[in-house]
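User: Can you help me understand a structure? I only have the sequence.
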Amino acid sequence: MTAMWIVLAAARRSRAAAMTVIPADVPLPDAGLAVTFAGHLHAIRCRRGLYGACVTSPVAPPLPGPHLCRVPHPVTVEGPERTWRDTVVWEAMTTDRFHAWHSGGFVDLGELEARLPHPLTLRGAIRDGTLPDTPQALLLRNLLRTRYLSIRLVLQHPHVFNPLIDLMEAS
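Assistant: Let's start by predicting it. Here is the structure, written out as tokens:
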């Protein structure tokens, strides 16, 4: 049995708000980010009526069985000397929980993972004000007036993000 399997089983049976699986070789700041982000996810989900522990990891966790998935959450952290770094905190969950959280249509999480560097680059372009001048970029700017760039936003608006990511992959 893997650590992820044990934690996911414990998450279903406990009253914990958040749990994090941290491999031994992960730097402490990345581990702390994953722990903090799990609490953040739990608070947001509770406001939407989705209760239960959020399970995160600073690295892509292995999925020890069927009906499990991992979701990459892009985050920006401040580093030394006020530099910014875009990274990913991974969330592991059952596919049932994923569908309860994301009530949209089918999502190919494998494709999302394969394209992952580009949403992070897109996050930097938003922060730096260097988005390309396209209709999708204008739509994205309008979306970001009331929301922040989360994986949920990416999943809810593929018509905005996919063309921008395609453009980044082509350049």
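Now, to help you interpret it: Residues 64 and 163 are 33 Å apart (CA to CA). The chain has two domains: 1-73+83-101, 108-171. Let me know which part you'd like to focus on.
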